[in-house]
Structures are given as C-alpha cells and as structure tokens.
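INTERNAL AUDIT FORM
Audit reference: QA-55
Scope: verify that the stored structure record matches its stored sequence.
Auditor: D.O.
Record contents follow.
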Amino acid sequence: MSLASASPSGAELTSEHLLALAAEGDDRAFAAFYDRTASRVLGLVRRILVDPAQSEEVAQEVFLATWQEATTFDPTRGTALAWLLVRARRRAIDRVRSSQASRDRDVGVGLRDLEVSRDDVAEKAEILIEHHRVATSMRALTAAQREALELTYFGGCTQSEAAIRAGVPLGTMKTRIRDALTALRALVSEPRPAGA
C-alpha cells in the first residue's frame, strides 16, 4: 500500500501509518508525516536549545535520521509522535552537551577571549531590557490572547492544534493570535518612560 493508493493527501492516515509507509520508502508519506509533526519537533527543540539556527539544524537532523531509521519504529511501544519527540529531545540535549564540552575545552586550553567589549555588554543589556518589555507586555494581554501565543509561538503548536487544545474553533484561535500580536506589537513599541 502506498500513500497514493491510501489517500491523495495522507490526511486520513495516522502518523503511525505514514511512518510505516515511509519505512517502505514512500517519500510522499514521509512528507505528510513531516508536515504533520515538524512544528512540534521544532517547538520542542527550540525550548531546549533556544538558538533558532541550531534548533532548525537539529530538527533537520532528527527528520533525516527518522527517514533513514523509520523501520526501527515499534507501534506497540507508543505513538509515532512520542517516538519522534523523544528522538528530538535526545538530539537537542546531545547538542547542548556537545556545545558545553566544546566551551569547557576552549576555556581549559585558554583559547577563549576573556575580555568582553563594551559593545557586547551594551548589546546584552539591551536584549535583557527588550526581553523584560516583552514579558511585561505578555502579562498585559488577556488570558485567551496569552494562551494563543504561548501555544503557537512558544509551544510549537499549529493554529489547528492550538484551537483543539484551547477547545475553540480554528477561526477563534486565528483571531486571538492576530489580536494578541497586534496588542503585543503596540505594547512593546510604546515609548519607554524616562529612566526605564
């Protein structure tokens, strides 16, 4: 059975079926599996790594390894999404450990530049101030708007997944996201009071 014979879009197939078809070499099934799971994987990896570029790189590595090792998935041990997210979490943690080991080696050998320029300090201070402004502005949003942003932008959910989790129609979720972004943009761009 292939994705083409099962369904034109793969929408009716479970993630487990799509992964099983991918294990047989069906690249369309894997593409559908990727479309269904990519935002969740990237959201999880971003929470661990924080750095967007590294997060995208690790997510890509996870999907490449998943394509190559799809035959190792055992549906009796859990869902395809859980299996994939465990793999993503492990890969992200490995990246954190690798980066830390590299930094430790550099410090041990004395290769790191210990002098911090004033520009670096000013830039870090500015980033912290902006982070504080965004966090403060997030608290000023309604609970529904805050939930919409937390699910989609920080939780890695698609708009459809966020709507299901919040128990609201998709259109309502889209409106909440739009209104939240508009309000957040206005709050963050308000002039700062003197001395702030």
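Auditor finding: record pair retrieved intact. The CA atoms of residues 144 and 176 lie 7 Å apart.
Action required: none
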